[in-house]
Automatic annotation (TrEMBL):
Keyword Methyltransferase in record: yes
Domain Methyltransferase type: 56-151
Protein name, entry field: Class I SAM-dependent methyltransferase
Source domain of life: Bacteria
Organism (species): Nonomuraea deserti
Gene3D superfamilies: Vaccinia Virus protein VP39 (3.40.50.150)
Length: 268
């Protein structure tokens, strides 16, 4: 179903590809060692031997993670809403001489993928692009194999919608209500375009707040067990107040989770 959420995200990411935004640039300088360092599997407590393992890069197009996993011997599928992003996955795979399957679709509907098909679902920052995270979690639970893992990176729910521009001279003013499915819009950060973007106008990200309780309870109810939680923050303590670097030292903008799918486990 291509609703307004789908159409907005597809249009925005096609514009980001044309503007050559940071997340749309395929990684063409990888080898196996660099791929392993980039994915940080050891830090995340994930299995390092990927030979023959089935990996789904969920809403993770752009030719970055897919290329890294394929270079480590994984059987990689990428599902993304943007045809332009998927084209860059294919380009990166061809450059590295590896195979990657690409599928255009919505993270809320993985019916095109087989049940219990993947040993690892790798989900970079995109969960906040849809209103109800629980729909995504149900779909992930269907396609990941028992014992498999789900890596999720998302906005820190407590600071969603807060940026360095919220500096008031003493701190960062939190104004958004802490609730589920509140829509937020804010300009892209400068680092998204560290090259000159094209002349195409890129619409602001349209994101939806997700409370920590909905994320955690939604996943445990689907049969996932939490294995790791990491706060992604900066360490530039000398950064100028009101800058993105300073903001990152005060409020960790992102969280990383590693979940293991164990249907029937206590609490699921």
């Amino acid at each position: 179903m291509q609703d307004d959420v789908y159409r907005y995200n597809e249009e925005r990411w096609e514009a980001l590809v044309e503007a050559d935004a940071l997340f749309t640039r395929p990684m063409l300088d990888l080898d196996a060692e660099r791929a392993r360092d980039y994915l940080s599997l050891e830090r995340l407590g994930l299995p390092g031997d990927l030979a023959g393992r089935k990996v789904l890069c969920l809403a993770g197009g752009g030719g970055q993670q897919s290329a890294a996993f394929a270079l480590l011997g994984a059987d990689v599928t990428v599902l993304d809403i943007s045809p332009g992003q998927l084209a860059r996955d294919r380009s990166a795979a061809e450059h590295h001489g590896v195979g990657v399957r690409t599928v255009q679709g919505d993270m809320r509907d993985l019916s095109v993928l087989g049940g219990s098909s993947f040993d690892l679902v790798w989900h970079p920052y995109s969960l906040t692009f849809v209103p109800d995270s629980r729909i995504v979690f149900r779909e992930v639970a269907r396609v990941v194999a028992p014992g498999g893992h789900y890596y999720l990176m998302c906005a820190n729910p407590f600071f969603s919608g807060l940026t360095h521009e919220s500096w008031n001279g003493e701190g960062y003013t939190l104004e958004q209500p802490y609730t589920d499915e509140a829509m937020t819009c804010y300009p892209d950060q400068d680092w998204v375009y560290d090259r000159t973007p094209s002349g195409r106008v890129v619409r602001e990200p349209r994101e939806y707040t997700q409370t920590l309780s909905r994320i955690v309870n939604g996943l445990t109810r689907e049969g996932f067990v939490l294995r790791l939680l990491s706060e992604v923050r900066g360490d530039r303590r000398d950064a100028e107040p009101g800058s993105w670097e300073h903001f990152m030292t005060v409020a960790p903008p992102w969280l990383e989770f590693v979940w293991q799918y164990r249907p029937g486990a206590p609490g699921s």
